[in-house]
């Protein structure tokens, strides 16, 4: 799912520090713990628009490969390639797979499925199906992706670390993931989890129903799948909980001119939690296991 716009920070946020660790021998260092057990650690970066980017190698044919950055979009089931990259790879619209796909030091994925789109709001990204099939974990606190993780290694780490984590189950609707959130202690609503969204947003009608106010003097343009709209400041979100577990109340933006009825209509989605929110919560997430871990900061 593509939601774009400059991220805005508000003073009411419960700020959670990123989960960086000192060294690989520290039992509180998840990357070191997993690396010592044979997992592959892949760093990601945010580009100027706030999109997650990772270095990958795409091979349309056995003897032709191209290194290129790719994004991750858990809000889209499929992998997507835009027209510029399609041309560089020498692909035609009838070709639906790449011969090989490399991500870090993970074993290559053969017959990697691809789709093409001329929509400027859709970039080059790995979608939810491939994220899940590859068994990838995201550590948004340290901006790392983990692959090739031994079975139950994450669970073993969580049981042994001196750090404390909340566990939040991801609900699924096909390949889409969401959680049920309560804002300011009011009636819970479904919020989509989307790594393809650079900014977290809340449905305008729902925000008004909660009594949230917007600073309409400070709005920014934002693109979505339905075209360009705008988002505005809101300072009135004080608490946020999922399954009664408290989370960072970092949700400073809201749709001013658009409701979220177009996002998974059967689920009545009232908000989208994007990369900004996942990083603020230093979340550790797996689509394969439908789970998010959030560190508890006293």
TrEMBL record:
Keyword Protease: yes
GO MF: peptidase activity
A GO biological-process term: proteolysis
One Pfam family of this chain: Asp_protease_2
Signal sequence interval, chain numbering: 1-21
InterPro entries: Peptidase_aspartic_dom_sf
TM region(s), chain numbering: none
Keywords noted in UniProt: Hydrolase, Protease, Signal
Protein name per its UniProtKB record: Aspartyl protease
